[in-house]
Each structure stands twice: as C-alpha cells, then as structure tokens.
Amino acid sequence: MDYTLEARGVSLRFGGVRALTDVSFGVREGELFSIIGPNGAGKTSIVNCISGRYKPTEGRLFHRGRDITGLPPNARANIGIGRTFQNLALFHHMSVLDNIMVGRHHLLKNNFLTGSLYWLTGARREELKHREKVEQIIDFLDLQSVRKAPAGTLSYGLRKRVELARAMALEPHLILLDEPMAGMNFEEKEDMARYIVDLNEEYGMTVVMIEHDMGVVMDISHRVMVLDFGRKIAEGDPAAVLADPHVKRAYLGEEDELLVDPDEAPSIAEDAA
C-alpha cells in the first residue's frame, strides 16, 4: 500500500535513554491518524522525527515514497509537511495576522539575487495573494475579531487556534498536531475538534494528531496508534484499539510482562514525551 507518511523501524535514543524502539506505521492520504499513549510514551518524539527536529537513531521515514530521514525541517515544510507544537511557539508581540503571515514565508519567491527586480515588479501582487490566503484562514478559524491583536494578549485557547492557523498558512498536505486541545475547556475542545475535522474533510489535509482526550480521539479519528515506553502496542480503528487489553493495561498502569522489559523502560524525559 502507498502511504503519504511511513515510518519503518524508527528508534531514537538520548544517551542511554530509549525514547522510541522499532516503531513502524503508515498514514494514508486523507486520513485523520491519532497517536496516543501515557505520558512518556514517545508520542512527541515520533512527531519530532517526522518534522525533522530529531533524526532517528535507527530506521527510515518516507513521505509519498521519498526517503526524508535526513531532510532538515525547512526542507520538509517545502514539500508540504506542517506542524503545531505542544508548547506554543507564537511571536507574542506580533499581531495574529502577522503571526499567520510568518507561515507563508517559505512560499515567497523573493531571494537575494532577484530581490531588486522582484520588488519593482511582482512584490505587491504577491503580497496581496498571500494576504488573501491568510484572510481565508482567519475566516475559517473564526479569528476575525482578534486579527490585529498581539498574540500574547489572547486567551490560551485562542493562541492554540492561531498556531493552527500559522501551520495552515504553509499550505501543507500533511499536518502534525501536537496536543492541539491541551489546556482547553470543554467548549474550546469542541470548537478545535470541529476545525480539525473540517481541515481534514474540506481542505483535504492528512492529519497526524497527538491528543490525550480519548473522547475526542475516538470520535474523530479514522485510525489510532498506541505507544507505550517508546514501543507500538496497538494500531487500528478506534473501537478495536480501545478494546485491546494491552492498551487497557498501558492506561491503567498495570504491568504487561509480554510488552515491557523493566530494564528497557526507563523514565523518559519531557523532551522525549
């Protein structure tokens, strides 16, 4: 089967700590694929490997059949991979509009050699084109009322929405969402879940999402993968995964001697969560 994203035997170590061990999976075009697991399971580590922030110690990553294991993050953005972060990474002093415009940066045609000619010819036209795209995203995420407000003055839920908007501005076909609903109240989660579904269905983006809210995950995901101590313990449709006894053990904290060797399951640092 052809996958938009495929991981083959991905392992990651930080010194003597194993964050990931032999993780393999594939994400199909147009899928909403969720990665779940207890704290320290390796969820953010696998997303960081996909986005290029980390390079796997072992294994390979493929995007539409192309080996991207050694590509830096900016090169992955250029081929259509966008992401949000677990900890917000906005420019707090800049307006919502300008934060989203930052996401368009890699799409600009200007460079050092063509700069002078470009600014005499097509600069204004291109700026209007990018502004139009950003305004569409602002409308989609209902950010009109705060478009000129400094990002740092917004509520946490709105800032999470602005970060999603900036990732959308890259025009990715594959978007990685790292806990997009963390810290939100019930109403904010409902809104964000609706935006993510619309992103997948209306914009046609393939979504890979880390999320702790099991209700949301089971409600909107096409397929789910479960990690525990850096190993994949289950993958499939939400109902089957939820019923898996290994998954229940992982979430209940019960020891599963078939899956976890105590000598190979050290406490994972937050950066390898």
From TrEMBL:
It comes from the Bacteria. Involved in beta-(1-->2)glucan export. Transmembrane domains (TMD) form a pore in the inner membrane and the ATP-binding domain (NBD) is responsible for energy generation. The lineage of its organism: Bacteria, Pseudomonadati, Pseudomonadota, Alphaproteobacteria, Hyphomicrobiales. This is High-affinity branched-chain amino acid ABC transporter ATP-binding protein. One of its GO terms (molecular function) is ATP hydrolysis activity. Pfam families: ABC_tran, BCA_ABC_TP_C. It comes from Bradyrhizobium oligotrophicum S58. Keywords: ATP-binding, Nucleotide-binding, Transport. One of its GO terms (cellular component) is plasma membrane.
